[in-house]
């Protein structure tokens, strides 16, 4: 699905940009140009950015919980 028709930014590209470190609409705009023409994509982009950040946080938390902890020896 295209999120930003004006700049031909699809959802996959937007999620990749968030995974690469862009965590706000402004930072995504600086990387891709999203929202710089008509701006109609900004609300949808914001939802996708928030969703991808939640996914990343959940993956990070589950990875740290499932990582084995070495037992301390005295």
- Say which CATH homologous superfamily is assigned: BFD-like [2Fe-2S]-binding domain
Report Rg. 17 Å
Strand content: 5-15%
User: What pattern of helices and strands is seen along the backbone?
Assistant: EEHHH
Total E-strand runs: 2
Number of domains as seen in the coordinates: 1
* Bulk shape: elongated
| Strand order in space, largest sheet | 1-2
- Largest β sheet strand count, sense and barrel closure: 2 strands, antiparallel
- Judged by helices, strands and strand pairing, the structural class is mainly alpha
SS summary, helix count: 3
CATH structural architecture:
Orthogonal Bundle
Mean pLDDT: 90
Helix content: 55-70%
Can you tell me about this structure?
- The protein has a two-stranded antiparallel sheet.
- The chain has 74 residues and is mostly helical.
- The N and C termini lie far apart (57 Å).
- The longest helix is centred in the last third of the chain and has 25 residues, at 42-66.
- It is elongated, with a radius of gyration of 17 Å.
- Helix 1 crosses helix 3.
- Helices cover 57% and strands 7% of the residues.
- The mean pLDDT is 90.
- The protein has three helices and two strands.
- It has one domain (2-61): Arc Repressor Mutant, subunit A (Orthogonal Bundle).
